[in-house]
Amino acid sequence: KLCLFQQEALRRIINTLVNKNEELQHFLDSIDSTRTGLQEESCKVMSELEVELEKLSSALEERGVQLRDVIKEETQRKEAELQRQLSEGKFALLSCEELLEFANQTLTLTNEEEFLTAAKQIKERVTMAPAFRLTTRPMVSGNMSQFTVDFSAEKAGLLRLNFLPVPRAPEIDVPGCTVRDNSITVAWQQINDADENGPIERYELEYRKTNHNSSLRASGDACWERICNITDTQVTISGLKFDSLFIIVRVRARNKAAAGDFSEPVAMETRAFNFGFDAATAHAELKIQGDMVTWEPQGTYTPHWATPKEEESPALLQELGFRVKLCVESPYRLLFSPSSSRSATPSPNKTAGNRAGRERFAGESYTVLGDQEINGGCHYWEIRLLADWKSHSVGVAYRGSLGRFDQLGKSTSSWCLYASQWLQSSLAAKHNNRAKALDWPLPQRIGIYCDYDNGELMFVDVDQFRLLHVFKTKFSQPLVPAFTVWCGGISMATGLQVPSFMGNFVSTNRSLSAD
User: Fold this and answer.
1) pTM here?
2) How far apart are CA 345 and CA 304, in angstroms?
3) Burial class (CB in 10 A: 0-12, 13-18, 19+), 23
4) Mean pLDDT of all residues in 397-405
5) Does 195 score more than 70 pLDDT?
6) Average model confidence (pLDDT) for the chain?
7) Which residues contact 276 (CB under 8 A, 6 or more apart)?
8) Any bridge partners for residue 491, and if so which?
9) Percent of the chain with pLDDT strictly greater than 90
10) 418, 471 in Cβ contact below 8 A?
């Protein structure tokens, strides 16, 4: 006994060490990833800095060219004006010298008449001389002080160049975060540093699915998904499939300049019932494609359970090419099949010899089971009917007690909701070869709720929020979801939480049961 006790203690130690090794490996992977990201981010911001400095240098050079052009234009204008005055002055001087020489020569004349004529000419020429109409001061000055510059303030501004201010990381309000109806609501609080770093314009939230309650990303975890342009301090993400144990969320603020650091990640628990079709159990004429199952017949056989009720006219069926006889197992149903020489019911032994796998359903049981068992708790899933469907059943069954040729609802091992629209509409709840007809239009979206511990199995018309039927029993074995499809197909939705509207159905049903 002591040896067994020590072995068990050693196994616990080994398990602890394995978990710690895995945690440390994830930590090291995270450090390597962060270091790689740091190097990439450093190269990125360095490149952006060089680009901005080049832009600044280009802007300075461009402005310098503009200022130089202004000085050049003003210099050229003044030089042109001075050159004009210089040309006019030289011409006036030359004219004045010629007139002076002519006046001096006139003084030497002795003939009075010639003297008077010359004097008159001199007087007229003096009146019209350019020298007496010319402004004798420069029209422009040589002063260029208006172009004096002092860039000391700009230089000081350049010296103040720095990196953009970014907001601090928000704090996620864990009590304010909720998980409900396959939606998560994340709330947070922003650290008030608007005066220092500018007002917050929007937020960005990232989330990813994981099966580890840790911010470290493990192998196989999903990548971050991002929601941008959030203006409030909370956001709701709807329509999620909860196919992991947790969703990790983090948020960061963004001002006009840039985005800040992300907040500390928070893990939100998102447990739900996830399962798929167990292809190994599927009837050979059922095709499994992801979350869909369709019926692909290998012949023209029509199962007798898909027939209409006794109200259908035998004459009408004969007109459609069916031969009619009373069903052996119930005097209230008609057994019919296409008029041919083919046997209506294939031999189980013959059928079994042609099927692959011992668990595969055969014969008239066009059934497939789910691949996950239910042995406790509350679970919920849904099905949708595909186009051109004719008949289907959905429910639960004891996996170990359901035979290969058993049909859902025909034994004590299965419970189901049966629907058919072949020749006439029919909706019924079946168990132990008993059927209860339900007076309700055929639903296109059916919710299945199973409370294993309380022995409750409910079927709901999800589109109309209508409780169709409740089985109340005591489950004694593990259950598996079960589906029967004949003509057409169905698609299922898993990874769903028990929706909030089921609470009303459950409480109402229990109140009625108590009464």
Assistant:
1) 0.65
2) 9
3) middle
4) 90
5) no
6) 84
7) 291, 370, 371, 372, 494
8) 292, 384
9) 52
10) no
